[in-house]
Amino acid sequence: MAQRVLVPVSKCTRMCPRAHASSSHCLFAKWARFRSALRFLCRVAPFFGTGGAAALAFAQPHPATIEKLPHVITAARTAHDLTEQQAALSIPVHLHAVVTYYDPYIDARHGALFVHDASGGVFIGIPARPILPIRAGSVVDIEGVTAAGDFAPVVNSSQITLVGQSQVPQNPPVPSMAQLLSGDEDCQWVEVAGVVHSVHMQSMNVILDIATAGGMLSATTVLEPLGNYESLIDSFVHVHGSVAPLFSRTHQMVGVHIFFPSLHELTVEKTPPVDPLSLPAVAVTDLSAFQPGQQSGHRIHVQGIVTLQWPGRMLCIEDGKDGLCMQTADETKVSPGERVDVVGFPTVSAFKPTLQDATFKVAANGSLTGQDSTAITAEQALKGDYDGQLVQFEGELIGQDLSAGDPTLMLSSGRFLIPVLLPRTAIGHGTLPWKTGSIVRVTGICDVLVSTTATNLGEGGVRPESARILLRSTDDVAILRTPSWWTPAHTLDAFAVVGIVGLAAFAAIIFLRIQVRQKTRALVASEAQLRFLSQHDPLTSLPNRILLTDRVQQALNRAERFESYLALLMVDIDSFKDVNDSLGHEAGDTLLCELARRLKDTLRQTDTVARIGGDEFVVLLSDLKIPAEAEAVAGKILAAVSRPAQIGSAVVALSVSIGVGVYPDAGTDMESLLRNADAAMYTVKARGKRGYQVYSESLARAAARTDVPARGPRAPIQQIGS
């Protein structure tokens, strides 16, 4: 016999504010009254004149949209695929579906209920209590209304009737990670496969971290008292479950996870190949090294001497002379010098081989051994040869930062500054005992930070950018020399006693200060010049790609925050090669400088003109109110640069081709905006040059079917006096 369960609408936290009816009859009546009111308002609108009609059109959904919506939605996928505005209309829903996941414990605000019918799946908003007599496979009859959810539309239920028991859908699709992250599979019943990396046990739930072919994915289920979840680690499994989004405060998808009802929907295809501790330990230098035929994706075994432990956060070991640091949640305490066996999944983090989800235990021959640290300089640390190793470093303590997550000392050595980090538990709520100006020696792990930009733009080798020292405790800091007693105040008192000698010494100090100030100014000016050269094109003095990337990212952040627009214009000189071939490279350089001057004279001070290589210029237009402003600027540029240019004794007919990429239509990051603006520019080249083109999806499809020539006919060049 069917069981009827009434769900109080007012208690559902994800429910639309207008859904206050306590039964399905009230909901259907409310929808009918709403539609009747709309028809009445449409009839009387002409009597209120143009202003009244405009206000009515603004306040109500478009009539065509209203007529397209069904009176009652009877398919789960139809309810899920409504727009946010449509879902907010509280359209009545009547579903006959099977439960794929029910969890009343996961959130104190509401329960989690996913259902599935022949059309697809949808999330049902219900309160956490009372606990309903349903489970995965239960066939239910649901009456409710649509509502705008945290990511996609949901159904807020007022009545759930248990009809009987069946089973969850069989043979679910197997989407890729890219498909899951697209949002198209939201709430759908799918299958994912991968290797279980870790298990997180909670009071009422269990979360598995699964490494799939497309990346890491978490899968959540209700805790079963007799479930042996730890045995799943390093197993290759197939999981059937409902897809759910990870979303931001602006309801944008930022990730995805899976809810599976029980271990019955988890199939172990391959058990862990072997206990990694039974295998010979892998050398640290062999991690992520090329080894033909090596089995990947499973845990490996490494062994070494503990050099540093931040319990529950980090463990560093040394294997011979090679060091390895890894993140670990294992809080088992070990002492520096103990030999440990570590198992974990090999991975790469911050351009370094490491282990993921590592666990460890003291080795059978784990007695304490002596540890030798290597004394290094700042220059040696920055070369990267001592990364992960136990080192000693000397420097002057010039500052302390106790507000950081981990207390930080700043040591100066020559022209280098080296941060030294202590674990946050090392000092508790106290203060550090060392005075600024002390000369200290620290013993810790050298942690080299890699330059992402330089490495990605290089030939393949990593490029160190900076280094820091990680300490185990305050005992790793030794004071070599305390600050001198001779402070400026004491010096002035002494000078007052010695009279004339003191005055002479004071004058000498003033002179030295002037010298220091002058040298400081020279150093600052030199640094400013070096910074300018690193961020600007040496020929035109325009920003280069590095500075352009920074400004584009700032403009993207502002555009996203203030919902404005920006545009990247790819400007390319037509027939520039002919100028170089006819007049020489010096004339070509002069033409490039002339174009740079004209571009800067045409644009606003807030816009950016950059040269990114050859005859290619990029114009950044930020804080646009409408996309059409970018087209207007492109037209101004064409008019400004179309005047002939005087190059020595020749007059060159100067023209450019411009491709326009507007955020967000042409992309939401710099690379996609540049790529699409470049495609639009080559479309102009194909049409005969000297013009501009705004990128659009139709342009992209047309470009895919058409071959675009790289260069056009030669530009006319006139010699003066010829």
- By CATH reckoning, the class of the largest domain would read Alpha Beta
CATH fold topology of the largest domain: Alpha-Beta Plaits
Specify the overall morphology: globular
Q: Count the domains.
A: 6
Describe this structure in words.
There is one protein chain. The chain is α+β, with helices and mostly antiparallel strands. It has 6 domains: 3-165, Beta Barrel (OB fold (Dihydrolipoamide Acetyltransferase, E2P)); 189-270, Nucleic acid-binding proteins (OB fold (Dihydrolipoamide Acetyltransferase, E2P)); 276-362, OB fold (Dihydrolipoamide Acetyltransferase, E2P); 374-481, OB fold (Dihydrolipoamide Acetyltransferase, E2P) (Beta Barrel), CATH 2.40.50.140; 490-534; 545-719, Alpha-Beta Plaits, CATH 3.30.70.270. Helix content is 27%, strand content 34%. It contains 16 helices and 32 strands. A 5-stranded mixed β-barrel has the order 2-3-4-6-5. The chain has a 5-stranded mixed beta barrel with strand order 7-8-9-11-10. Strand 19 and strand 20 (408-413) form a beta hairpin. Helix 9 (488-498) runs antiparallel to helix 10 (500-535), helix 12 packs across helix 13 (585-602) and helix 13 crosses helix 14. The radius of gyration is 34 Å and the shape is globular.
